[in-house]
Amino acid sequence: MLCKGEIPIEKNVIVTDVNGKRIGATYPKRAKGLVKNGRAEYASDCEKCTIRMLDTHKPTVDVTEVNNMGKVIDFDPRDFKADKSCENNVIAKYFVTDKDGENVIAYSIGNWNWDWTQICCDKKLEKNTDYVFRFVIVGGYCNTCNETSRFEIVPMPDGSLTDEAYEDRYTYDLAQNRYKPVLCKKTDEGMLRLFEIPFSTFDCEDFRFVFIAMHAVATLYAPKGISAYADLEDTNFDQLRDEINSKNSEDNSANVVMDFTGAHVTRSTVTDLLTMARFGKSEKVCIDFTGAVIEDDKPDDIQADADDTGSDDIAVELMDVADN
User: Fold this and answer.
1) Higher local confidence (pLDDT), 65 or 291
2) Alpha-carbon gap, residue 82 to 216, rounded angstroms
């Protein structure tokens, strides 16, 4: 079943790679242009319904161009602004230096709370034309898997955003890769995903592009060519979850947890516990004194406690910490 805007029936010229493997379809006029420019050749002299891409053209570019055969729109952070219809937008736009040493603009949207955030951009496009919208997103997910992370394309036939136009929008669910990205890579910031969204304008020329985030922080970047991410390690959500669970297990095994909430304890007991926390071998010691009542020791107990620790200074210091 054909999806609206993805494979128009006018694309009736088959496109293959240099080995004859089919990689897409295109318009007759576009096929003629590729042959004329030396980037492709007809499969046979008498058959002009199939063209073969030549190896003078990079394969990664071939696949994207042939499958979509349209104009490419790269995400530009400077074009997008907060949607004023949202009262709780959480956004930040700033310069960062990427792994290639280039200064680029990062657009952060959303937070870990439940503030619904939207940014949008309006563009005027050519009618009856195939386009591809490309963007890179880092993050945009949470451990509980209940985040909202979406991209929307809204056709506006009347040139404005009406309720009817919004109902006819194209929605792409980016959460947990329910819409599959072109690539997923591991970076120091988190998981990087490159998306290429194909769509057709049909008889409309005014469009709104919208990014939505809630209960997760997403950082959007202008995309680079696919080859620019080749040196990054591949990953996916299953690997990400396994790494998080493994790290949590390691952290929990290193913790020593003692619950003294609401208890009545003496200063000497507090001193002993804090001495253990300070000089113990465990990586993390968590002692919960919420609501606890710390009572003074008898004079003999204080002296005995100081003798046991081997240092009056340590005992005094730790009792000060307990008081705080």
Assistant:
1) 291
2) 17
